Amino acid sequence: MFEDIDLDGHKPCAIKSFTTKKSTQRQVSAMLQRANKKTAEQDNVPAKGKIFSSPFKAVETTIISDSSSFQGTVETEGNLIVHGTVTGIIKCGSLEILPEGIVDANVEAENVSVAGKFQGDMVCNGRLSILSTGKVIGQIAYGRLSIESGGQLAGNLTRSDSKESAVLPLYQEADKS
Fold first, then answer.
1. How confident is the model at residue 60, as a pLDDT?
2. Does residue 12 sit within a domain?
3. What percentage of the chain exceeds 90 in pLDDT?
4. Is residue 50 part of a domain?
5. What is the domain extent for residue 154?
6. Which one is predicted more confidently, 113 or 11?
7. How many angstroms separate the first and last alpha carbons of the chain?
8. Looking at the predicted structure, is the pLDDT value of residue 72 above 80?
9. What's the pLDDT tens digit per position in 82-99?
10. Residue 161 has pLDDT above 90, yes or no
């Protein structure tokens, strides 16, 4: 049996109504009750083994897509991937500039990988990697440096030996409250 129902101005649709045997309904109801009982029992049972809480924060990734352009300040403890254009100030845990990416900014990051174009000032306490399609121009301070064949680097370079001057905290202290 079909009946037409109007859903707040939407096109009427056909809904098929059917009946089931009472024995089938009882079986389904019993199955659901057993499943709910098992779930409740499992929730009350303590987990086996030790539970460790990681001291590391969850790492978030922010992506500036190829059709996007951003002007301003970006601050994140996680990863920033630039496929579009960014102008301004960037502070992040890790910066990755993809081949089509263009960054004209002052950057502070733990690790930076450049396959696109970068211009500006950069403080990279970890590894600065310039890939074969990458071009870096500016005032650069780095902890470690790698340049693939074809990668371009122009500007003033300073090697930073300080491992204690992390730009952003990479782990979170356990909450002692």
1. 86
2. yes
3. 50
4. no
5. 61-159
6. 113
7. 62
8. yes
9. 999 999 999 999 999 999
10. no
Distance CA 117, CA 145 (A): 17
How many domains are there within the chain?
2
In a domain, 128, yes or no: yes
Judge if 8 and 40 occupy the same domain. yes
Quick one: three-class SS letters along the chain? Answer: CEEEECCCCCCCEEEECCCCCHHHHHHHHHHHHHHHHHHHHHHHCCCCCCCCCCCECCCCEEEECCCCEEEEEEECCCEEEECCEEEEEEEEEEEEECCCCEEEEEEEEEEEEECCEEEEEEEEEEEEEECCCCEEEEEEEEEEEEECCCCEEEEEEEECCCCCCCCCCCECCCCCC
Residue linked to tokens 């649709």: 13
Is residue 87 within 8 Å of 71, Cβ to Cβ? Answer: yes
What radius of gyration, in Å, describes the C-alpha atoms of the chain?
28
Residues 152 and 65 in one domain: yes
Q: What is the pTM of this model?
A: 0.61
Same domain, 66 and 14: no
- How far apart CA 109 and CA 70 sit, in angstroms, is 18
Are residue 68 and residue 151 in the same domain, yes or no?
Answer: yes
